[in-house]
Amino acid sequence: HYCMFILFLLTLLAALFNFSETVVTCDGFVQSLSCDTGVISVQSATYGRTSSQICSAGRPRSQISNTWCSKNVPVIFKRCNGLRTCEFKAQGLARPDPCFGTYKYYTTNYICITAEIQLFYLHVEHGKIQINTANYGRTDKTTCSQGRPSQQLQNTNCFSPNALDFVCEGKSSCSILASNSVFSDPCFGTFKYLNISYSCVSKCKCYCIEKLYCIVFLCVD
Q1: What start and end residues bound the annotated signal peptide (predicted)?
Q2: Termini Cα distance of the chain
Q3: Could you tell me the pTM of the whole model?
Q4: What is the 3-state secondary structure (H, E, C) of the chain?
Q5: pLDDT exceeds cutoff 60 at 9
């Protein structure tokens, strides 16, 4: 087995969280997410069964007794993040089947965000996230420089090192806003970015023959 990862980098219109809502949809039905103001930012999306009561009407006991079945569904993040409304048939989005013979449902938790930010979402399908380096600041004059006045690019000694360690290290998924409100401002007046280098480490290290690396830049004020 090799370590695998999915990286979603979204530019969203948002800065303040208005509410959090959880939508539960039985397998085969339509799930609908919407924001009156702002856009959708999915916080978690799972498929399976953790309760014998939810989506149980008319189902035999054998189909609802397994309540230890849950699987993350990254495709919902990709499909819905950044939209005002998102509607899709909740079926066939999480393969392979996490618990064959059990009638399952989709549980999606999301918030609406209302100003311009950048949202970073990292998901590791097999294994755990290992942060190699992470900095919020600026170390060169070219990255995320388009359309910026020169005075916002001069300070290349701006560091907030290991910025994601406390959020992502050792987890299978994490999401974080690249903004001063999260990291504080290490260099006032400088246009900053979040620079991350990470690897996927297998739960069973003997299987992790190769490590997959990624470097991503997020541009933020």
Answers
A1: 1-22
A2: 40
A3: 0.49
A4: CCCEEEEEEEEEECCCEEEEEEEEEECCCEEEEECCCCEEEEEEEEEEECCCCCCCCCCCHHHHCCCCEEEECHHHHHHHCCCCEEEEECCCCCCCCCCCCCCCEEEEEEEEECCEEEEEEEEEEECEEEEEEEEEEECCCCCCCCCCCHHHCCCCCECCECCCHHHHCCCCEEEEECCHHHHCCCCCCCCEEEEEEEEEECCCHHHCCCCCEEEEEEEEC
A5: no
**Exposure of 64 in the CB half-sphere (CA atoms within 13 A):** 14
Q: Is the pLDDT of residue 121 over 50?
A: yes
> Side chain identity at 67, as an amino acid letter?
T
